[in-house]
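Hey everyone, long-time lurker, first post.

I ran two proteins through the pipeline my lab uses and got sequence/structure pairs for each. Pasting them in order. The first:
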Amino acid sequence: MPRWIVLLGCLGLPASATAADPRLLVHYMPWYATRDVSGSWGWHWTMNHFDPERRTADGRREIASHEYPLIGPYDSGDERVLECHVLLMKLAGIDGVVIDWYGTGDANDYPAIHRNVQRLLPWLHRAGLSFAICYEDQSLRGLPPDLDAEQSARDLKWVERHCFATPHGLRHEGRPVLFVFGPQHPHWTVTLESRPVVLGLPHLYRERGLDGCFAWPPVDGGRVVAREAWTAFLDAVYADDRTLVATAFPGFNDIYSQAGVHESYGSIDDDDGRTFSTSLARALASGKPFVQIATWNDFGEGTMIEPTRARGYRSLEALPRCGPPAHLRLPVLLYDLRERGGDAPRLDEAAARLFADDCAAAADILAGVQRDLAADEVDDGPDRPTGGAPAAP
């Protein structure tokens, strides 16, 4: 019996014996920048308020988040980060990634986000993970009339050429899938020969003539959203037969008010992990072909399942096809050893073993590199602060 059906029974939720096993996706933000990699700290770590150059007594940088990444604040263009993230997803049993994308324009940090998406795709291919684009059509706002249509056409042609045409692109009933976070632009349309299945938000997709919708954490108006409210919202969305994507989330705790960006959207308590387990179980029981976790790494809104200092690997370990906990810790150890200057050829071999699902061999290699580094660091002086990576099992 699949583990997710056991999970439903433990939570007292119905499970259909004939329900198809949905594809498990995770929403990914490729927008982080650090001084060491990109030359400056990007807006998503600072929000023009926090200063990551400041450190607390325990060595943490000041960032725009209530939570702190286990590997520390990172750059989304750093190949070591992408390797670590994708391996964590693979070992946690995630099937695919929905990549948040602002198009090919040159405003704000859109060029960096576009570059980071292109760097991420080969790692997803290597891991055998499927992917889809979530187009943030709000990037078209502020463009003059006609130029917004031209920009949208360029953006969608890029998606068609580089995402729909690849065998790793997410498909539904033979057609490529495109997510739109909205649509928010009043004149946005899709005219592509590939005829993608276009999915928008529940309250917008019908009036804009899209094929269907995907659920999202229901926060609005700065209110605390109780469990009864968000479960009722999701039940109503799942009752729509054009909802193709159910959602799971660990909670919602944005930092916009503290950063002075704008008022908070609201909050959903993580309830010591129960919000995630409950929303995941309901999503799996919904009968929808896809379940999207919102999100992998939106630290500004507090919806990440990426391992953090406070929560560790709790969310990943709750996934229905997650591997052994000891294996799940290996990508973070690999990242930490690369950061500390470990033997690159041996670390490359360990990574190859992880991509090949040979975790035992990878663990042995990583343990050897860790021992060698520890000996070198004793000879060279005090250890530097690390991202909190565990010892090899």
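...and the second, right after it:
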Amino acid sequence: MIKRFLSILVFAVFFATAAVAAEPVVLGVFAPLTGDGAEYGESFRKGAELAAKQINEAGGIDGAPLELIFEDSKADSREVILIAQRFISNPKVLGVIGDFYSSESMAAAQIYSPAGLVQISPTASHPDFTMIGEYIFRAGTTQFHEGAFLGRWAANTLGYKKIATIFINNDWGVVSNRYFTETAIAEGAEILAMEPFIPGEIDFIAILTKLKNLNPDLLYLSTMWADAAQIAVQADKMGFKTDLMGGGSLATDALIQNAGAAVEGIRANLSFFPGDPRPASMMFTEDFEKVYGHPPHSHSALTYDSVMLLAEAVKNGGRDRAKIRDALAATKDFPGASGTFTYDADRNPVKENARIQVRDGKWQIAEK
């Protein structure tokens, strides 16, 4: 009887231990899954789901499956705060990925960092984002890096001398415009005008009429793709012919689908572009196309990397939120789809950008 009891006890302990080991590793993902930002949110969802699929097919994280909880941020700062409150109060959630927009990411960071829950945004590029707290990370580059990169490309490499800008009047748009113009001026260009607009604006005729009269050789857009599509179409209809450029927020097929020939020739930058010869990028592109039937977008690659980085941090730090933060901060030479990750003291990766342009109705590597 004693031997039988001990055998039963051993089996009970074994199965209890196995059950604990199999408890899913839970990560939260919040992004604009509906509304004007749904194109971005869909890219987030696909990148995150592919990462989880690969991790689980490879045996999970130390034998435990990875589970993702998706929340629709609706591009609303009030909504991301509600989502953050739900995530921090759920002890199973070990880290979160989001949001797409800098303003919403920064609003959420005010909740996550004091609560001690890691937040990594694939795309928030406002320089102040990671400065909000020690638990805040990013996968992409900052506006300081992107704006300076684009300013040098425009004024130095391409030789534009007379530039006008249109920018969305929010945290992201202001700094995006600022770092581009400061660099362009330093490289010898003249900024003829800088025109802000309120988020949600759809009529740009007055702004475009003013800028057309100034005759710029480049119009720089610190906007989202939907705004850029409206601006390009309206400029084309009024005969305002000038070259166009913007940041990675424009680099989506939805821009081309909505603006057509009006955005032929437009230039932008990306952290990742299909055709990148690095092994991690090639593998990601191949796997993404097998699952979804189309090439991946940079936003999908950055979200994929965000999930992979957090999964690695959980593997190294266990299920302790503070140790996960420390493990993520210690990341060095991690081979991601969008580049190699080593975090600096401010939890920013230093990465290069790809130069892309719409040619023949599709995004391609820019010739110059």
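Reply from user beta_strand_b:
Welcome! Quick read of the second one: The two ends are 82 Å apart (CA to CA). The chain has twelve helices and 14 strands.
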